[in-house]
Queue: 4 jobs
Job 1
Amino acid sequence: MIGLVKRLGIRVRRLRRRIFPAPEWHRKWDDQVWLERYLNPERYRFYRELVAKVPPRNYSLVLDVGCGPASLLRELLEKWPGGQGSCKFMGLEISDAAVRVARRTCGGAHVLRGSVYDIPFREASADLVLCVEVLEHLRRPRHALEEIMRVLREDGQVLITVPDGAQDDWAGHNNFWDEKSLRRFLSPYPVVSLERMPEMGCLVGILSRKGASCSS
């Protein structure tokens, strides 16, 4: 019975996306009023909590894919006000408008326009990859995850967040994962940890390229 309800819920979500297509949100980054509403105190609290989960170590390249206006990178730079020595903080974003905002407001990071399906970095080049609230928007999330893992160093880690599919029903999302289905989606790679952040309505996973036992 529970499985039937879940399947019906997925069908309703897909139908809603056809009837009520999502707005072209990526064009809204130039709208200052919308941007201030989006980057509200709750969102910054979310970013700070994510930054607290970043494993402490010396990094050479931190890459935020789908970085938007690079607000999460700014939080990282505030955590490390003296920088990380020669560490480079890079952002990758498909929206021209978001790239403009990021370059204007996050001088400590270098933000490129590009696609998560074709990350313009060589194999095994990033120590830490951030992919925050991105995969749920994609038509080909598996392709994106493979590309993220391609650029990750052997001893690196990936921090991923997606909305908790048990709560999320926004018509603009293409993918909905609950904890069980996200674990299955990530399973081709070693999952260091996977947890719920119920107050933020999301799931947080950390992946590595080395073998690791998963904690929940």
Job 2
Amino acid sequence: MKARPVGLAVVVLVAAAVLSWVAVGNAAVGTPDVTILLNNMVVPGSGLIGGEVAFTVPYPQRATIQPQVTSQPSGLTYRMYFYPVGVCPAMHIKVGPHCYPTDGFETGYEFTEQVLRDNGASWKARAAVSGPAGPYQLSGRITVSFVPLATVASITVSSPKQGDAVFSDAFVNIAWTAKGQMARMVKITVVPEMEPQAAQVIIASTPNDGSHTWRPGQSVIGQAHLEIETLDGNVKGRSGVFTVQRR
């Protein structure tokens, strides 16, 4: 894998309702770092913030999302949505022959060889915020940086998959693959899509061996995703969105 070339820096400046985009560097090489600056931005509540940022992913890489935002109220959740250009409708991503709504990612996303094969190298990104009832006042930045995937330790959740439906009273096999050097123990959390602040820890510490059995129960009904994170917090994986339903 080649070392990461110097790429494009894209800066989004937000002041109240005013939005400006400043691009610096050579757009023909590398993958851009994306920084969204939030200067006393006031938004009515949960939803997308800012506009689209276009960037190129010429080879498999991991995008790391780093929010550094102070807010009123505090405790808001920030996500980045990544989707290809000219392949699917906006805010959708291609998996095999079909297009699906893209997930919002809090910590990072892997542009794997398969993802790039299905979707190409041209991408767009948008940021979003979620939390209790608004309005929100935001100040700070959200930065997305890229490193070659071969150098990154990662956790890839393979079960449950995007679009799966499971019963609340049945046992569910959680499966993941850990790649690279990382801690030997992980924490597994289930996060409701409609109320991410109500996330529940499935197990606080379990061996990072790629498998765990879980019965959702009645407290998790509806759409959700899983997060598997090493106990030192250095590596985190996220499942696709699945549905928990009563039998």
Job 3
Amino acid sequence: MCKTKPWGQGPVFLQQLALLDGFDLKAMGPGSADYLHTVTECAKLAFADREAWYGDPDFTDVPVKALLSAEYADARRRLVGAEALADLVPGAPEGRQPGLPGFITGSFHANGGRAGYNDTSVAPSLDVEPPAPRLDPGTGEPTMRTSAPGGSTGPVGSSYRAGDTCHLDVADRFGNMVSATPSGGWLQSSPVIPGLGFCLGTRAQMFTLTPGLPATLAPGKRPRTTLTPSLALRDREPYLAFGTPGGDQQDQWSLLFFLNHLHFGMNLQQAIDFPSFHSAHMPSSFYPREAQPRVLDVESRVGAAVIEELRCRGTSSRRGRSAGSARCPATAACSTPPPTPAACKATPSAVNPLGVEVKSGSRRRSGAGASALAGGIEPGAQRRGDAGSPGDRRRHEQRRGRQHAVRVTQDG
């Protein structure tokens, strides 16, 4: 699995995979309470390490190898218990003690560990009650909720969205694949820099002013962004390009998609459409950088019984109107079954230094029988308008899905 270096949040995807490798996810079943609880608790641990250890590797020594090691994952996995974790608990890779800025520790220590649980960082895609405010620190998505189509001013809680982070997955007929998330933040409200012609970026809000931390502000330093395109390899060749908008949710939504395909054998469309969820437990990467301890957003399609069981593990449910949640495009390179987890090697890959994170790869051309679309086109089949011989063409599937969500709040 190819992900960004730790000046993006890409390694958090790999850390979640390493933690989950010690659980029998197939036996739990997708959509079960055990599955939701286990994936959520592992996400909390991985994102806690993101807050403590990730930063521009040109400026700080990020212990990536230790964070991704099996030994470290084994030790961290013991923190996953029967009840929802209430604290933010970064680990100590290589025996190094983690550090967190005060705004993070304060979120978890004030008000009995419930600080940050309010409606100021509700995701715009989760059209909940009470209505979400104009600002959207919860996901970092463009906050275009103050105007409705045609220029009229809509209600604060309107579900209308005119802007979003961009994610692209591209593949050609030879199997070359690119996954890219080219976003500088929300540019609609940013001033244009005189003489240069482009907007001021908004990613610097992801720095901290606390001295001596991996994400501490410094001249020439890259902020620890949430951008995180993905490229999965099979037999060391590109197999699947995927990703999503969503700020801090990117490596949660895309992880669920990947697990649905890898562990449960769903095709790409099924994996996208399956009911989704994400944790708001970790601090937001966007101003005002608030955390919502034990908060989980889950789609109503999961079912009342699952939500009730989560409540029994320390959760209380708060439901609202349904609206679009995750958007996870994906492009695959072949029609054969998904690879086993062991076949996906975890290796963070390089990103370009200008802030546009791109993953790319290519597959060697092969003969007939290995060049069909993941959606089930027979090897050698030809479509109208296709050029070249059937044996040289590769078929690709690209799907988009939208789910419907309610909010489950874990109050322990």
Job 4
Amino acid sequence: MSGGWTLVDANTNKSLPMQGTQLSGVAVPYTAPSPASTDPVGKLRVSTPQSLIDTDFEYGQQPTKWESVALQNNRSSAYYIPQSPLTVTAITGAGTTTVTLTGTFVIAANSLIYVQNALDSNANGWWYTAAGGTNSLTFITTNIVAAGNQYNASLSYVYQGYLYSNVGIQLGANAFTTNATTTMTVTTTNPHGLGASSLIYITNSSSTGTSVNGAHVVVTTPTANSFTFTNSNGAVAAAAVTNSAGINVLYARPAGYVESRTFDGGVAFSAGSSVPNAQLIRQTRRYFRYQSGKGIQFSTGTSLNPPLFVTGITASGTTATITTRFPHNVAVNCTILVAGVEQSSYNGSFIVATVPTPTTLTYTIPNSKIGRAHV
């Protein structure tokens, strides 16, 4: 039976003679390919070893073989080059939304910055640097970043971002209005497709005072052609912001992320937002080069319901608070399943009551508790 199918003992996984199970106690042995017919992970070879090209997608992120596209309502905007991280030594918070980036780099003014796996998750995401800088720059985040260096030499990466061509949301001339506060109203030429909490970029606008260029979050959408946002740079005087018609100023801002999991060779990726119609698509490159007559073997697996990385659960009365390592992207009234907590009152299916921060959420438990749960 060499070179083809043979009998295999179910207990020992060893090849057997045709007539028996060698006292294994298994009445009927099953069949499996012989070792010469399988690859190192047990799959049946589809060609001879000399002709097989091992694409080896299983170990690490391998950005040369994968590409990712973040979309908001089917609209793309920004991307970064995974092979070109910035050389960074510090991501320094000040207990405010202003963060200082230090390292060895030259970044032009009005550039996009993408931060991944900072110690404080509020520093992670897509941001905007108005001034740029050589070896040092600042950017403004949506949420407060803890004071101190949030850079982890083993996990943190920072990239310069770039905008795709022709993906801006079209505006007419002077589309920004304000009432001398931080609230800005924007009128678009066509339906914008945004919703409350959608992430946006404003670039290339002009202002006689406080700029509105930067990374912002949509607050309301009064009509299909208008929305409001809170200017993270501060209050803006009335009629102080101008823009030219036909010049891309407004972009959807991606929220998704891709993270290589070295402990198991997998890759975690997420749309990164609780906003409807936010997507992150991860796909193989469109083309593979191989010689005629040779084979390509590809296999993969996906968990469509991964658990959140929970760092702790506490309770006060009947209100339980879950803290996660990364932003959970869970909205109020979502259903969550809690399992594995030693105190059974915390376990079960619950409705999210509140979302105090991007990394915490609360739900109501049936029995009153005080203190920290054991997870």
